[in-house]
């Protein structure tokens, strides 16, 4: 791809509106030092120095999109609690539209709260209720999506199996999108794969793709990809393969894209970066193969950063140039 063309596409990122629907989470990092053992029980006492709130789950996809300059709408369900306030505050600090986030009284905001002393994680506390949302909440969520459907260029369904993407929610979104020619990409949980028949694309990792079809580890990854794409009637399927990069299953052929990551520090959240860049590039008019190359490039940048991270357009452009070097 020519440099001008790539720059044009990256410019388009700011004009595209992507709706993320899924399980929004809050990651909390409580960081301190330990100087003594508690007199109450044989446990360390952490003297807290700072606390950091980070967007997690589907909210990390929203964060990736916002960092890339895209317009985003997030649709999800959080609790009517203080962690819900914190999650909304982080969204607002980043100028992310939260009109599609529904607050309910009967389930908590999903939180993963870590207590860290120095570099050592001492404990993690999780809050969640992963049961499917009630029918009335499904109605509310689907109605909100309907209200905005004419502004949306693409949907990302980010399924962490925490109850927002019920079979009905998934199916109705795909139906709505079909009628309007809107892209729908899915980061699936294998047991819910059947909910996503007819989506544009799916981005499972190796293990998830195997599990979607109930196959064992020894099965050929290329056979799995082909079969899954057919079975779910997807336009294409992007199978992420960690250190082996990714494979795109299109209409006629399979494209294998190797990874060019030089330093790998932390692969957490790489999948969220992949689906964000892939969808945004596709919605900006890029061919799916080029979009996959760009997503793979972005993943190569993000695995070189510590913690759940995001990438900017400038970082993608620079790394793409250093890999493919087609412009010099
Ligand atoms: N060890 C690695 N070395 C090089 N690149 C990697 C590595 N792990 C991940 N990547 C890059 O990140 C992309 C997505 O990684 P992976 O297949 O592990 O997705 P995932 O399991 O969905 O990730 P996540 O942990 O975010 O759910 C890969 O296609 C590749 O480009
Ligand atoms: Mg993943």
Description:
Helix content is 36%, strand content 27%. The chain is an alpha/beta fold. The protein has a nine-stranded mixed β-sheet with strand order 5-4-1-8-9-10-11-12-13, sandwiched between helices. Strand 12 (246-249) and strand 13 (254-257) form a beta hairpin. The mean pLDDT is 95. Residues 187, 205, 271 line the site of magnesium ion (MG). Residues 205, 240-243, 245-246, 259, 261, 264, 267-272, 274, 296, 299-300, 303 line the site of adenosine-5'-triphosphate.
Short précis:
The protein contains ten helices and 13 strands. It is an alpha/beta fold and 328 residues long.
Reconstruct the topology from this structure.
Elements: H1 3-12, E1 17-22, E2 24-37, E3 44-57, H2 58-67, E4 71-79, H3 82-93, E5 101-104, E6 110-117, E7 120-127, H4 135-148, E8 154-158, H5 167-180, E9 183-187, E10 201-202, H6 206-212, H7 221-231, E11 236-240, E12 246-249, E13 254-257, H8 270-283, H9 288-302, H10 313-324
Parallel strand pairs: 1-4, 1-8, 2-6, 4-5, 8-9, 9-10, 10-11
Antiparallel strand pairs: 2-3, 6-7, 11-12, 12-13
Helix pairs in contact: 2-8, 4-5, 6-7, 8-9, 9-10
């Amino acid at each position: 791809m020519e440099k001008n063309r790539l720059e044009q596409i990256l410019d388009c990122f700011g004009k595209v509106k992507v709706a993320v629907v899924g399980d929004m989470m809050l990651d909390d990092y409580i960081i301190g030092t330990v100087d003594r053992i508690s007199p109450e029980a044989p446990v360390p006492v952490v003297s807290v120095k700072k606390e950091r709130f980070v967007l997690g789950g589907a909210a990390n996809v929203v964060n990736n999109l916002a960092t890339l300059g895209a317009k985003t709408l997030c649709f999800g369900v959080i609790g009517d609690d203080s962690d819900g306030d914190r999650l909304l505050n982080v969204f607002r600090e980043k100028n992310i539209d939260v009109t599609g986030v529904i607050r309910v009284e009967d389930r908590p905001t999903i939180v993963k709260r870590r207590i860290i002393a120095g570099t050592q994680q001492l404990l993690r506390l999780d809050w969640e209720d992963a049961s499917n949302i009630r029918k009335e909440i499904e109605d509310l969520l689907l109605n909100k999506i309907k209200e905005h459907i004419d502004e949306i260029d693409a949907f990302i369904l980010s399924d962490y199996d925490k109850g927002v993407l019920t079979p009905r929610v998934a199916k109705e979104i795909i139906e709505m999108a079909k009628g309007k020619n809107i892209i729908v990409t899915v980061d699936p949980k294998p047991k819910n794969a059947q909910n996503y028949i007819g989506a544009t694309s799916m981005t499972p990792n190796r293990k998830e793709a195997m599990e979607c079809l109930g196959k064992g580890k020894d099965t050929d990854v290329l056979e799995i990809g082909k079969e899954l794409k057919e079975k779910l009637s997807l336009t294409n399927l992007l199978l992420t393969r960690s250190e082996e990069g990714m494979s795109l299953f299109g209409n006629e052929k399979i494209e294998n894209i190797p990874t060019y990551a030089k330093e790998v520090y932390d692969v957490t959240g790489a999948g969220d970066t992949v689906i964000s860049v892939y969808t945004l590039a596709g919605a900006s008019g890029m061919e799916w193969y080029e979009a996959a190359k760009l997503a793979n490039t972005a993943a190569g940048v993000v695995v070189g950063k510590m913690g759940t991270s995001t990438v900017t357009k400038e970082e993608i452009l620079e790394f793409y140039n250093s890999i493919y070097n087609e412009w010099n």
